[in-house]
Structures are given as C-alpha cells and as structure tokens.
Amino acid sequence: MVVAQRVADQPSTPLLLGAAAPDLARMARVPVATTGSADHLAGVAVHHRTDAVFHELAWFRDHNRRLVGDLADRGIRRGPARGAGHVLIELLLDGALLTDPGHAATFAGPWQAMSAPDDDALAVVEAAHHDQWVDFLEQLTSRLEPAEYGDPTYAADRTANTLARRPRLAMTDAEAEVLRQVAAEIQPTISAESGSVLREVTESVA
Fold first, then answer.
1. Cβ proximity of 94 and 146 under 8 Å
2. CA distance 112 to 58
3. How many whole angstroms separate alpha carbon 151 and alpha carbon 154?
4. Fewer CB atoms inside 10 A, N or C side of the chain?
5. Number of domains in the chain
6. Is the pTM of the predicted complex or chain greater than 0.85?
7. What does each C-alpha distance from 2 to 15, 46, 66, 87 come to in angstroms?
8. Which residues pair with 125 in a beta bridge?
9. Nearest one of 10, 13, 19 to 205, comparing CA atoms
10. Tens of pLDDT along 130-140?
11. Cβ pair 28, 136 in contact under 8 A
C-alpha cells in the first residue's frame, strides 16, 4: 500500500485496497475482480509490479538466503526454513514501515474499510464470492494487529501460523521457538534498512 500511495498521482482508498487485494484474496481463496473502477485495477497492477521488483532486489535475496541458511543451521527443516525465510522478512519490513506515522496513516483508511466491509472493500473480489470475502475480512481484522509486525515475536508467530496452513511447511513448537529467537536477532537490521528498501522499490515501480 505504501508503494502504491507513493507512485499514484492521486492515491485513493480504492487504489490502496486494490494494492492489497491479491495477497488477501489468495489467503481468502477467492478471485480478485478483473473488472471495476480504474483506481482498483491500478492498485492491483501496482501490487504485481511491486512484488516483482521487491523479490528481485539484491537486498531481499541476500537477506532471504542468509535467513534460510541460519534457520537450517539451527535445526529447522528445509521446507519450513524456506517458507519462513520469505514470510518473516516481509512481515518485519511491514512492521518497520508502519512505525512511520505517515505510512501508518496510509494504511489506516483501507484497514478501516476492511474492518467494516464497505462497497470499496467488496469491489476488489468477484461478486459471487462476496459472502466468503466478508467472512474472511471480519476474521482478519479482528485477529491481526499489523502495527505489531515490528515486534519480532509477533511477526515470528504470524509467520508460523501462515505456514501452518500447508502441512509440509508447518513448524513444530521447537522450530517456532527458534524462529522467534532469529526474528529478534534480525529485526533491528531490517528496521534500519527499511527506508532505503522502500525508496529503491518505489523508484523502480514508478
């Protein structure tokens, strides 16, 4: 959402919701709407460009490689280590960005729209799936505190919960505890580098 806000000429709540839609719709297992307002569709497009740029950054690739290796060295199996390496970096980065009041304000409008799903929040998925989407959003906004992603324990637990949806990636309790320890070790570095990462991604997407 922060990148979408920065690159848009006139950022709006529908555009920011569109930027969040692909990840959330995948979690909800519903399709993103392929028709809708220009802002919504522009947000979806920015999401895909941002993902492509971010995952090719040397910063992400280097951190991911080191983290996966570190987790494996500490006894976490290869599948969970690879899954956690990807998710944890993104959550800690999100948490670092949300400590900035301006970025938190950008996030607040779309989050409110999803907390009590309005027409803009509904429009990002196909109409046939609105009931499922509303149920998902109600559960999501009641159980998550995105501003807490900067807390390494919270981010690690959210990472483990995300992986638990896939049996081959699910962590044992012992592995989840190792993940908490590693998250606490890497969080200060990711937080310190978050501003430069955001600038690099924004410049590439723009």
1. yes
2. 34
3. 5
4. C
5. 1
6. yes
7. 11, 11, 26, 18
8. 32
9. 19
10. 999 999 999 98
11. yes
